[in-house]
Amino acid sequence: MSEQNQEVTIPRKIVQNLLHHAQQTPEQEVCGLISSRKNTPCRCYPIKNTADHPERFFHLDAQQQIQAMAEMRKNNEQLFAIYHSHPTEPAIPSCTDIQQANYPDALYIIITLKTKGVLELRGYQITGQQFIEAEVSQLLSS
Q1: Cα 132 to Cα 129: distance, rounded to the nearest angstrom
Q2: Are 9 and 137 in contact, with CB atoms under 8 Å apart?
Q3: What are the tens digits of pLDDT across the range 60-116?
Q4: Smallest Cα–Cα separation from 30: which of 135, 109, 117, 129?
Q5: Is 133 in contact with 5 (CB distance < 8 Å)?
C-alpha cells in the first residue's frame, strides 16, 4: 500500500449526519455506511450496532446492511465508506477495527467523542493489517 495520503472530500451534510449520529448515543459506538455516485459521497445509511459490548465494539446489523446495500444498488450508488464512533478512544483504528476490515476499497471513518467539546472525524484506508490515514475535508456547498 502506498505511503501517500489519499485526500477525500465529504459533503458537509453527510459529515453533520455522522456527527449527529455519534452524539445520539455517546456511550455506545454507532455505525453505518456511506454511499457514493461517481466517487462522490452522497448518502448516509445509519445501521444498528449489534455488538455484544457496543460501548467498545461495533458490528453492523446484517439485515440492515443487506438492505442498505440493496438500496445503494437500486439508486445506482456504490459503497464509499464504513463509519463508526469511538466514545472514549481516539479516532484511530483499533486492532479489532483492522481485523474486521473486509472492504479494502472502502474508506473507514472513525468519529471520536473523546476530544473536549469538538467531535473529531478521521478516515483510513485499511488493507491487510495496515492502515493509512486519508486527509478528510468537507465540501462546503452541500
Answers
A1: 10
A2: yes
A3: 999 999 999 999 999 999 999 999 999 988 899 999 999 999 998 999 999 998 766
A4: 109
A5: yes
Give 22's DSSP letter.
H
H helices of 54-136, where? 62-74, 95-99
Whether residue 50 contacts residue 30, with contact meaning beta carbons closer than 8 Å, is answered with no
Rounded to 5°, the CA angle 75-5-131 comes to: 80
Q: What are phi and psi of 85, to 5 degrees?
A: -115, 160
8 A C-beta contact, residue 131 and residue 125: yes
Question: Which amino acid is residue 11, in one-letter code?
Answer: P
Q: What is the number of alpha carbons within 13 Å of residue 57 lying toward its C-beta? A: 13
* Whole-angstrom distance, CA of residue 39 vs CA of residue 11: 12
pTM of the model: 0.90
Domains in the chain with CATH codes: 7-139 (3.40.140.10)
Alpha helices in 25-93 (DSSP H): 62-74
